[in-house]
Amino acid sequence: DNSLLEGIGRMVGAYSDEVALMNSLTVNLNFLLISFYNPTKQRFKIILEQDAFPTVFYACESHILQRGFKPEDCLVYVKPHPDSKLLDTSDILNVIEEEGDSVALVLLCGIQYLTGQLLDMRGITAAAHAKGCKVGYDLAHAIGNVELHLHDWNVDFAVWANYKFMNSCVGATGGAFMHKKHKNNKFPKLLGWWGHSEKTRFDFNSDHDFSVGIKGYHNSIPSAVSLACIAASLEIFGKTNMRDFRKKSILLNCYLESLLEPNLKKYGINIITPSNYQQRGCQLSITFTQYDADKVVAGLVSHGVLCIVSLGILRLSPNPLHTSFMDVFRFVQLLLQILDDLTETK
């Protein structure tokens, strides 16, 4: 995996010794919560988004309970306004300011998986650190999607999956980041043989000669087959850079939006993703007020479009690596035809 770390580091804005390819997102989150959530009587809370992916809730709840605390006392949620599905940055900063003295950890997404909203990670991290909180991010929908600068933003840790925008197949080995300021930490952690120093790993002794930084969190050997998929993805990303990738992503997303907008009222379509392209990733999430979303998806699938609906939300993502402007045009024409067909059958 060492040969891939420089490329992974570029994807998240980190040095190669700040990143690791190991386990899965949830396992890595649990590993790093052992180190970064150490509650005291004064600091015991975790700030989460209300609609975080379930695995984040489960991981946090399990660690809270294992430390002898209660989730209802420890979990503080940042919530959208009643008339919106989007988080307001000022609300997040206000919660950090108001609760910060009792907060051990701020754990948020980089991009909200349902709405596609891109959070201000730099600003949130600075505000949390000013209150003495540790900061971590779930980057499942951010890596390979937007520019990230985890080291420069001074983020404490982050975890991600490599099977979404990293295109490395379902079940691909996950990734983790830990800022090098923590490389010689004495935090509690789970240890395993693969975290041993590379110089002495194959001496097969138990002298606790562990690698520093995130490498010391390795427990076992990552899958070579999975790493090969990640290597292929990094090779493709290596032909461009995230700045140019992001420009193409914004153009595709805005084109998709421009085709949908004239039809929103007629078909009862709502775009719940931020209208400001700087506040969203490569995603437009839409809901329907006049149609059953499951029937819309069934129509799309019958025409060869691979998609699912979650909580009544259809997430559209014109990934620049494998989506053309013509693909976007054809998709919208198909979607409108399906909605017309559903109208006729009412």
TrEMBL record:
Example of a GO cellular component annotation carried by this entry: cytoplasm
Gene3D superfamilies, sorted: Aspartate Aminotransferase, domain 1 (3.90.1150.10), Type I PLP-dependent aspartate aminotransferase-like (Major domain) (3.40.640.10)
One of the protein's GO biological processes: anthranilate metabolic process
Pfam families cross-referenced by the UniProt entry: KYNU_C (PF22580)
Record carries keyword 4Fe-4S: no
GO molecular function, one term: pyridoxal phosphate binding
Hydrolase listed as a keyword: yes
Keyword tags: Hydrolase, Pyridine nucleotide biosynthesis, Pyridoxal phosphate
Family annotation (NCBIfam families): kynureninase
PANTHER family: KYNURENINASE
Name used for this protein in its record: Uncharacterized protein
Organism in which the protein naturally occurs: Ciona intestinalis (Transparent sea squirt)
